[in-house]
Amino acid sequence: MEHRIKELRTSFCFTQEQLSQKLGVSRQTIISLENGRYKPSLELAYKIAKLFQLSIEEVFIFEKGSE
Q1: Cα(32)–Cα(13) distance, rounded to whole angstroms?
Q2: In the chain, count of helices (H) and strands (E)?
Q3: Tell me, what's the pLDDT at 61?
Q4: Is residue 1 a contact partner of residue 33, using CB atoms and an 8 Å limit?
Q5: pTM for this model (two decimals)
Q6: Which CATH class is domain 2-59?
Q7: Binning pLDDT at 50, 70 and 90, where does residue 65 land?
Q8: 14-56, pLDDT tens digit by residue?
Q9: What is the DSSP letter of 1?
C-alpha cells in the first residue's frame, strides 16, 4: 500500500511531532507510516484523511492483491 502522508504533511508544514499530536499517536508511528513499515488501522486512516480534508482513497493507494 502506498500513501501520500509525507507529501501531505510537508505541504501543510507539519512536523512529524505536530502530525502525531493532531492524530493522537506517537512520532514513531508517523515515522513508521512514512517509511512504509506500518499500515494504519481503518480508524487512523480515516483520521489522517479527515485532517487533510481528503478521502481515504486520495491519501492511500490500494494495490490489487496487497491485503
Answers
A1: 19
A2: 5, 2
A3: 81
A4: no
A5: 0.85
A6: mainly alpha
A7: low
A8: 999 999 999 999 999 999 999 989 999 999 999 999 999 999 9
A9: -
pLDDT at 59: 93
C-alpha cell at 58: 486520495
> What would the grid cell of residue 20 be?
502525531
Distance CA 51, CA 18 (A): 12
For residues 55 and 49, give the distance between their C-alpha atoms in angstroms, rounded to a whole number. Answer: 6
CA distances from 53 to 13, 31, 56, 65 (A): 15, 21, 10, 27
**Domain layout of the chain by residue ranges:** 2-59
Amino acid at 42: L
Report whether 55 contacts 3 (CB < 8 A). Answer: no
